[in-house]
Records
---
Amino acid sequence: MSMGTELGNLLDWVEGIRRRVRELAKEWEDQEGNLIMILHAIQNEFGYIPRGVASELSKELGISMARIYEVITFYHYFRLTPPGRHTIQVCMGTACYLKGAMDLQNELERQLKATGGRDGEFHLESVRCIGCCGMAPAVVVDGETHGRLCPNDMAGILKEKRGK
Ligand code: FES
């Protein structure tokens, strides 16, 4: 692919983003909490809030980037980095916590060797009770619940998912 084609594709992509941000701003215009609703829509589409998209949104709505980032960081739901291909949720509800959820989380972080547990392939997060307390401590991997785990099980879980 030539440089010109790549640049053309990039410009098309940027224009597409501008158009989409404009559509979202229009859709939620004059509605209470519109910034949050637009951020939800952006995250649903991209999996996170890319900086360039936040910047377009700032221009479109006339809201400072500082304010947009304040909202994004206030709500834990919003992500500033792309999610990994696989999501691992460690339950930190009371039953799981008491049965060693923290040890599972520490082992996963150690294995992923990444601050905050993100290594590009995996997205690691803590969640509240997932309703399987009888299986504590439990983790959910790509929507599938695994229970009664110990730290030694973590390597197998990661191995099974890697490369899939
Ligand atoms: S506390 Fe973990 S499933 Fe309920």
---
Amino acid sequence: MERKKIYNSLKNIISEKRIVFDESLLEKYYSDESGNRFSFPLLVCHPENEEEIVELIKFSNKEKIPVIPRGRGTGLSGGAIPLYPSIIISTELMDKIIEVDRENFMVTTQPGIITGDLKREVESLELFYPPDPASLDSCSIGGNVAENSGGPSAVKYGTTKDYVKGLKIVTPIGEILKFGGKVRKDATGYNMKDIFIGSEGTLGFITEITFSLLPLPKYSIDLLLAFERIDEASNAVVKIIHSGVFPQTIEFMEKRALEAAKNFLGNQMASQKGEAQLLLRIDGYDREIVDKSIEKIDFISSKLRCVDILVAEDKNFQEKIWKARRSLHDAMVMMSVKREREDVVVPINSLSELIKNLHLLEEKYKIPIITFGHAGDGNVHINILKLKEDDKNFEKNIENVLSEIMEISVKLGGKLSGEHGIGIYKRKYMKLVFSEKEIEIQRNIKKLLDPDNIFNPDKIFL
Ligand SMILES: Cc1cc2nc3c(=O)[nH]c(=O)nc-3n(C[C@H](O)[C@H](O)[C@H](O)COP(=O)(O)OP(=O)(O)OC[C@H]3O[C@@H](n4cnc5c(N)ncnc54)[C@H](O)[C@@H]3O)c2cc1C
């Protein structure tokens, strides 16, 4: 069907003001933050409610035109990128909180709200929605559910899936389903809502989400620990968790990441010491327990070769010690002409083994590999850098480097992605993790919901 004809048909479903047809305005919908393009969006629809989504999806089904749900386009695995000429359905206008239920500690929301806005809104009521992806001020909560996003606080508080209690979904053929609700326990039938969490926009359009909340912690203290050796930093992670202290975050930066941050920040670094640093946040409702946790961490660190400890309680100093970690994305961009980012996850006691193997890969292929990330949950961000435009070695070897990283992670008992998802780029590695049968079962679930394969087709599985 011609683009103009599609446009004319869709005008019967939603106001033409909310359909993007002009090719120059479609630019930003070609890709997500991974930056690659594959095909073009036919047009973009901005529905305001679930009924419009149902009709848009029914139309796509009738005409067999691929349809792609899109939040704010910050994804890193290509989930929102059209692989074929497609209709994009954006949630940008569906950004309202439907209800904050203070008695039940629940919030129900539309999918398009920016995650940080939702967090701030509930915090103003002394309530806490813990998941904190680094992109929280630009991504949507629906995108977070579709990717099962997490952030530094996953060590203590878990990821998005741990808070989703209810979901409303429009299926790929335009039916409305509702799973879960405002209950903290639910043993009624299959745990269906979890199939949609992390399904990367391939099984249905999430139109409403109910999240559980916590009371807002009163105290929050940060620690920066610098270690003489990388394995001692990862040893410390295991020992701290075993001691019964549950930090909200345990972030890891190896020396090369610290050097990159220093080049970016100049003399604004709180500490440059050590082969590796850990950044911890201890939070809680009881000051005495928070103080005792800090004493325990201090004791554990003193038994290892910890060369610097900084404790930050006031906001300014906290900002200062987090600055290096927060600057790493920009620091990597500044020092390279191109980079590949991986977010494999391994059991926490395999972290130093993973990093050792990455250093060997770096030597083998002569490509800089810099790691940092969420040490407390074994999810490491691996940055493979191309430093110069004319560096042919990078292009020649990058595919081998990526494959070896996936193999190493799986061998260590890990997985391909901790938070960014499979999308387009990691489909070819799924066989490392799943047997033929395990893949077939997942494909059959997709087929059952999307018999004509028009809903975000060919993502996750090749
Ligand atoms: C600088 C930076 C830092 C980041 N840090 C983190 C981090 O710390 N942790 C982390 O987990 N991720 C991180 N990300 C990745 C990204 O922000 C998350 O994956 C986020 O959840 C994507 O949300 P979005 O609204 O931008 O979704 P999009 O990119 O628009 O879409 C992502 C996927 O979700 C699907 N989708 C979106 N909305 C819906 C819906 N309503 N129904 C069904 N499917 C839907 C899309 O089809 C697509 O497959 C980071 C990204 C950047 C650029």
